[in-house]
Amino acid sequence: MTNVEIQLKGSPRATVGLSAVDKAVYLINDKNKLTRKLVKDTMKLGDLACSPGGGLHVGQVFYHAGFVIMTQDLDRTPATEINNILCSLKQITAEVSFGRYRRASDFCCISGRYRRGHNCKVAWQEFSYYRKTEFCRSAFMQCCNPAPELPPTRKVITSGEVDESENERTPSARLRQDAKSISPIFSLYFPESELFQEYRLNPSGLHKLNFTLPDSLTTWHIQGMSLSDTSPFCVSKPISLTTFKNVITKLNFPRVVKRLEQIYIKAVVYNYKTHPINVKVNFHETKEICSHAAPGKPFPVKLSIPAKDIGVAGVVIVPLKAGNFTIHIEVYEVESNTLEIIEKVLHVKYEGVKKTNSFSLMLDPSGTYSGHKRHRRHIFKDVTIPKNEISASQKMQRIIMKLTQPAEAIDGSAKGDIVITGNILGSTIQTTLKEPHKLLDKPYGCGEQTMIFLAPCVYILSYLNSTNQGSQVIYENATRYIRLGILREQEFRKMDGSYAAFDQNPSSVWLTAFVLKVFCQASEFEHVDSHLTKSAMTWLFQKQRLDGSFIEDYPVIHQEMVGGVNDRVMTAFVLISLMECGYKMHPVEIYRRKNEIDLAIRYLEKQMAVTYDTYDMAIISYALALADSSRKYEARIKLRSMAIENYDKGYLYWRVGGYSNVTAKKVSAWYHTEESYLSVEATAYALLTEMHYGEVEHVGPIVKWLIEQRNSAGMFKSTQDTVMALQALAEYGIKTITPDINLFFNLTSSRAHLHKHLTVNKETSLWSHIIPDVPMNDEVLIESMGIGSAQMELNMWYYRPPTQRETCHFNVTHIIMPIQKDVRRLIKRGCPLCGESCRNLNGPILRNWDVSDQTICMKIYLRYLGTSDPGMVVLDMDLLTGYDTHEELLEQLKLDRLIAKYHKHGNSRLTLYFNTIPFNKEIEIKLLMFRTMIYMNRLMPAPINVYVYYNATESCTKFYQLSREKDLINLLCDSSKKVCKCAQRDCVTCYESMSELVNIKLKFLEKKSCAKEQIVMIVNMTSTFDSSGTAYGFVQEDLSKTDIPDLEEHVAIFQKGICHCPHVKVGEIYLIMANKRVRTLDESNQYRHKFWVDSSGLMINKKNQFVKGEIDIFEQKARSLSRQAFCG
Questions:
Q1: CA 1091 → CA 240, 291, 457, 944, 1075, distances in Å?
Q2: Which ranges carry the Alpha-2-macroglobulin domain (predicted)?
Q3: Side-chain-side CA neighbours of residue 540 (13 Å)
Q4: Closest Cα to residue 952, out of 810, 800, 1123?
């Protein structure tokens, strides 16, 4: 590390903030680089004004300034004028403002309006947009309304500003090592940024500080900004500080790898000296990392590096467990007698498929929702609740819960936590307003997804506002999400007022109705131009048929939401949107359109008689209730007859699918709690219907069932059911009096050290109380006492190995082909992907691609296995470790309309999503991937997960990999690789020559047999070692008396890996010692014990004349004594 002294100069007593950023970060992306312009632009975002000032009349002056004046004495700003004003992040642009511009130019016009009052020519040059066409420029300039050029401003010297001449005099800091004796230099800390502290200048405007730069050898970009009571805000000019050494060692490996991947750890030594040097690099052993290094015995590599050249030392490793591991090396330079110690963290994650199980349980010690005892319940196969009892008189509830690591889980990968919230919407509130991406856990970016993120914010804020809960921070977060969501959705608006999922897609009736519904509800908190909602209503009425129904002209993405796109469900959904929105924002329009609304009501009344599906009946019933149909009570009675009642649990809900819904069903408490997303949505509509009739006091069982369907993030089964359930629960919360809450929780485990005490009261009821690391294979006692109710959510996640027999709803296949260097040159110049046909160079030009990179072409073939197209489909795939793909190629897939959108998560994951995947034909996607990091022969398979966006249960996961070649690191694993042990040690001694055999004496055998975990066996070999180093043998006797089941008189597997010997003969008897063992399935699907025979073990033919006598004596002694007595 380097010690640095910096002197700060500025205004007296000014507060100065400093930052030091590695310059390499800005080479990758400098969009957020701190500049004066960035600070000024950010400050402008907080300006609510709509213009630089002035106005036609006094009311407009106030309006332009961002004020709302509540008085009757000022002239009201005409609506036509308001529609032509776009407030920065405040008012949605009206159609009148940019009516003649289409799709891409809408965004250009909005961006131009944001820059009103500035030099529009300069603003256009600074405007960054990937579709920056001449048409876009015309829209930008037209909406910008160029203001007169402002005179150049004077430069004001303010606190913290560094003079250029002073900046030039700042020397670069250099690190030089010139030690004459070994003095270890520790290189452990390599952040991308540092400092980030505030300092107070003294009355003279000075401050000196000493700090230590990290170990990175790079150029640091150091910058300051200051605030003062007496001087303007200031951003200083940056200074650069370079750290350097004559001999530099860089430790290179991927930042994140998967368990059991073979990774090449590379130490690159740079010699900047004018003479050659000799270097010894020692790779030290790391626990749970398998390598050529052993405890106390590092793996050495010697290098002779010429002057001004580099040397590379490397070692292959295999992580055996997931977690963060420190890779430790020593670099010793012989000539200067210096030693440098370098440590760097390797992040290892589990391979395979991540599985998540979540369930909710109500904690209700006072018996508010159910005052009787509850019985044993089986949640799912890995979680049981032997006891769940309530004593309402004592206000106490006792739950015993047991979590079991799933049998399919990779050993040690199962984790769990418990989350307790004191509000029916607690976890949902936090997720919606803090991390909305977790609420739905899906990719986002199209018009429909934007609305699905916007809607929860609206319902949550409505609930908090109506119940006087939450804080100013919560309110500001929610309104910010709502504001940005409204702006974002305008990118998908058509000129006729309708909305589409993507730019190129036709308008959607369902999406337009959904936008109308949410925008009208959002208008309570953010300004929504009435022209937007009214034009959407007008467009919807134009889509109504003569019989009163509404249909979708084109395949809707979210097909399952509308029950297979039948007309009655679509009609009910549109009618709900019209009624919810109309009376809030457009009562006159609803009155004027009474005939059309009555026509839709009559259509649904006719359909009600032939409707037997629970989902259809639920949405029709709510629509008729809102529209005040004369047959609304008849619809309600029919819906109630379809309910499922569970008296043991106090549930009332509506199940969709799987049986006739004509009559009511009563089910046992032993049923599996997993219900479909359509059941959640139907129950939400039923709850809204009941509350519309004022049945607030009797809907507790419905609310209870809905709450217990959520996961830890507040999400339900899918997307639209999450939105509808939140609307229903928020409406319930608004219409009920929030009870007092004062609960005490005690959580303990029987074997693990879990002792946790929690208190939840009114002040903390909105926030989650998380108990992490809930023990697996243990019982947890949860005691709750007090008044009120709370929600407990258990989350368990684990990884399982990939299987060949996955249940797939898609046909997913792939082909991987290497791309030769001559073809790579053609691809760089524009040859189509994979270089199969280069007659036309019409592909993207890859200017930044180095053709020397090893490259592969991956072809993915997809087909849906259903009977009709599924709607939006997502392909989510991990990239192979050390491989990446260019965004230019992904853009080409989008331009070719093979995909609708893509999202690249760094260089580790890629998400593609499609309007649909056909059921009647196969589509092909080509991906070009290039190597960015050296790897060894085997990388772990990477998953390709394909699923229907709105119904993730319809999915398929397949794995792809490059090679199945023999491992370079020896591992001992079971068949599924859930459990692996490192077997990378020296090979077993052959003991085949006379000189080796005569040295085997009784004491030698005794010492070998008493090694830690050593198992001593007499084995009849039934096969020789094959090319993979594997042989089979029948275990006649276990001399070590370990009582291992299924060992004696069973066939076992023996491995020697890549070792040359031993050689065995079929039918002969061997004395075998080994201390590494796993239990695995063999090729015939039989469980076998597998042993690794290495230098700590032994394998000798009993009949060999040189050792037969010693082995016989050893056997007799081992049989006559216990292991403890034998080994002392």
A1: 58, 19, 58, 34, 8
A2: 193-283
A3: 36
A4: 810
Phi/psi region, residue 260 (left: phi>0; alpha: psi -120 to 50; beta: rest), is left
pLDDT, mean of residues 1080-1091 = 81
Segment (H or E) for 811? strand 810-819
Distances (CA, A) of 1016 to 934, 1013, 1064, 1099: 41, 10, 17, 10
Is the peptide bond preceding residue 203 cis, with omega within 30 degrees of 0?
no
Place of tokens 């009849």: 1020
HEC string for 242-286: ECCCCEEEEEECCCEEECCCCEEEEEEEEECCCCCEEEEEEECCC
User: What is the Cα–Cα distance from 1057 to 541, expressed in whole angstroms?
Assistant: 74
Length of the chain: 1128
Q: Which amino acid is at 656?
A: V
Q: How far is CA 898 from the centre of its chain?
A: 25
Measured CA to CA in angstroms, residue 259 lies from 165, 308, 348, 833, 842 at distances of 54, 38, 6, 32, 41
Average pLDDT of 145-168? Answer: 34
Contact in structure between 614 and 655 (CB atoms under 8 Å): yes
Q: Are strands 1050-1055 and 1087-1092 parallel, antiparallel or unpaired?
A: parallel
Mean pLDDT check: name the lowest of 183-192, 551-560, 652-661, 703-712.
Answer: 183-192
Rounded Cα distance between 827 and 807, Å, is 37
Integer Cα distance of 239 and 383 in angstroms: 58
Q: Is the peptide bond before 191 cis (omega within 30 degrees of 0)?
A: no
**19: β partners:** 223
Q: How many CA atoms lie within 13 A of 576 on its CB side?
A: 23
Name the residue with tokens 């961002």: 66
**Element holding 925 (H helix, E strand):** strand 923-931
Are 293 and 284 spatial neighbours (Cβ–Cβ below 8 Å)?
Answer: yes
712: closest CA among 401, 416, 381? 416
Judged against a pLDDT cut of 70, whether residue 253 lies above it is answered with: yes
Cα-Cα-Cα-Cα torsion 832, 931, 857, 849, nearest 10 degrees, comes to 0
Whole-model pTM over 0.85 = no
Q: Which SS3 state, helix, strand or coil, does residue 645 take?
A: strand
41: pLDDT strictly greater than 80: no
- The Cα–Cα gap between 500 and 915 comes to 12
Contact (CB, 8 A) for 288 and 321: yes
Q: How far apart are CA 43 and CA 577, in angstroms?
A: 38
Which single residue is written with the structure tokens 């919807």? 540
Element (H, E) at 436: helix 436-440
List the one residue out of 175, 379, 1085, 342 whose CA is nearest residue 792. Answer: 379
* Long-range pairs, 584-588, Cβ under 8 A, ≥24: 584/520, 584/521, 584/523, 585/520, 585/523, 585/528, 585/530, 585/533, 585/534, 586/530, 586/533, 586/534, 586/537
Token pair of 914 as six digits: 């499609």
Calculate the CA 429 to chain-centre distance.
Answer: 19
Three-class SS of residue 623? helix
- DSSP-assigned letter for residue 1062: -
pLDDT of residue 54: 53
Q: Give residue for tokens 């009739």.
A: 693
Under 8 Å between Cβ of 1021 and 1127: no
Q: 674, 682 in Cβ contact below 8 A?
A: no
User: By the 8 A CB rule, do 241 and 4 touch?
Assistant: yes
How many CB atoms neighbour CB 287 within 10 A?
9
- Decide if 416 contacts 403 (C-beta within 8 A): yes
Answer whether residue 200 shows pLDDT above 70. Answer: yes
Scan for tokens 């609310």, then name that residue. Answer: 703
CA nearest to 522, candidates 447, 595, 457, 586: 457
The per-residue pLDDT of the chain, averaged, comes to 77
Q: How confident is the model at residue 445 (pLDDT cuts 50, 70, 90)?
A: low
Mean pLDDT in residue range 23-34: 64
pLDDT score for 123: 74
